[in-house]
What we know:
It is a single chain. With about 150 residues, this protein is α+β, with helices and mostly antiparallel strands. It has three helices and six strands; from the N terminus they run ααββββαββ. The protein has helices at about 5-40, 45-80, 125-130; strands spanning about 95, 100-105, 110, 115-120, 140, 145-150. A six-stranded mixed sheet has the order 3-4-2-1-6-5. Helix 1 (about 5-40) packs antiparallel against helix 2. It is elongated.
Amino acid sequence: MNDKELKTALLNHCIEVVEKRFSQIKQTIAGIEESLVEESKSSAGDKHETGRAMLQIDRENAGKQLLEIEKLQQLVRKIDINSKSDYVRLGSLVYTNQATYFIGISIGAVTVGKTNYICVALNSPIGQLLSGKKKGDMFMFNEKEYNIKSVV
Length: 152
């Protein structure tokens, strides 16, 4: 598998993860909305009000999660795996002596073929250390020395 195919596979995996999370939170919100409608039909006094208040809090939390997922969707759309660069940026594949990183969103280890890759966000701790680095650069992370072998 060449680098372009690999980057495409990693990007597609990131997209799938974000879309799955988006679908799950939409289902959660729909369930909360349905429960709120059911609570509205009830007239159990204080218990009814407490139940509605808890559902409102759940709906607010789910709404915040939805906003975060929508930000991830926007970020994933911005990832350009086709343009070439000598330095690490969004969409880069970074080979180091410790691991290989795909700069996109933070979803952790992904296996493509029989090889593990680590998907990290540019604003994550390791992403910030990698950002702007070139082949031959070194950096320290978690008391380990990393040498960048190549940036694709």
